[in-house]
């Protein structure tokens, strides 16, 4: 995603308008004759490995990037723990391409929400500035994780609206008020089963039942957004953007529902069990680090263009719902 600053000598200006745009779809599919993700990862791996073995300045100068750290850590590991080269390349492909567009999509949504809710942005900035007085120049993982309002704003609340990891699921619709994409996960039954329901439903013959017979080889579509925003679980304000809800214990109805999410809050954004997102902690910390740096220095405000959120493989912002080109203009000024 390209963030483009409009206006000359923007560092000297009181405000500027940025436009985040660029096609975030299909980036993993190379153009005709181009390189795929695996080929790029192999090329990067060979470069990092050669630089490490030669002790060249090229490796030392870029030693802060995660790929260099991965290659060096693997070279120092014991034989029992060391990964073969092809597994390192696979890990590099995951780190380079997985969650690249999904995390940036979630950040776009978060920037937009902060621009709409100046009170939340001000409170978040106050927490960040207060923390910086006690932290070193570069905060540790645990220090960032300990910022409770940053956690509520960056992690839980945008995800309750289904905005993170959207490509893990299949979107089928969106709600007009919140423009949140309805995302779901798909499963297939391996044998005949009885599916219990949380409350009775009315069948086609007019009867009510609290369980359904599901034949073998049936596709089941489970709405993750439906679970994340179910008023029966979260209360009548389940569709509202309220980071404060995460600063107190979740309702008993959520706990009693025993939703098998990978997080402790019983959200289904990252699914759960063996098919849960393996990189959700990495994505969380990436978003926190970006917000930690930006919100301290900049104030985000809405531009004059109205933003429409387009459903697709990714949730993407647009100023023209008839075009697929993602765009999200925002006014960015120096924070007081």
Write the layout of secondary structure elements.
Layout: E1 2-6, E2 15-21, H1 37-54, H2 57-61, H3 66-76, H4 85-97, H5 100-116, H6 118-132, H7 141-145, H8 148-160, E3 173-174, E4 181-182, E5 184-188, E6 193-202, E7 208-214, E8 219-223, H9 224-228, H10 231-234, H11 252-257, H12 280-297, E9 298-302, E10 308-310, E11 316-318, E12 327-334
Antiparallel strand pairs: 1-2, 2-12, 3-4, 5-8, 6-7, 9-12, 10-11
Helix pairs in contact: 1-3, 1-4, 5-8, 8-12
Please give a structural write-up.
This protein has 336 residues and is α+β, with helices and mostly antiparallel strands. It has helices spanning 37-54, 57-61, 66-76, 85-97, 100-116, 118-132, 141-145, 148-160, 224-228, 231-234, 252-257, 280-297, and strands at residues 2-6, 15-21, 173-174, 181-182, 184-188, 193-202, 208-214, 219-223, 298-302, 308-310, 316-318, 327-334. Helix 1 crosses helix 3 (66-76), helix 1 crosses helix 4 (85-97) and helix 8 packs across helix 12. The two termini are 28 Å apart. Mean pLDDT is 75; it is low at 1-34 and 159-182.
Concise structural overview:
This protein has 12 helices and 12 strands. It has 336 residues and is of the alpha+beta class.
Tell me about the largest β-sheet.
4 strands, antiparallel
The total of helices stands at 12
Number of strands: 12
Q: N-to-C SSE series?
A: EEHHHHHHHHEEEEEEHHHHEEEE
Question: How do the strands line up in the largest sheet?
Answer: 1-2-12-9
Mean pLDDT value: 75
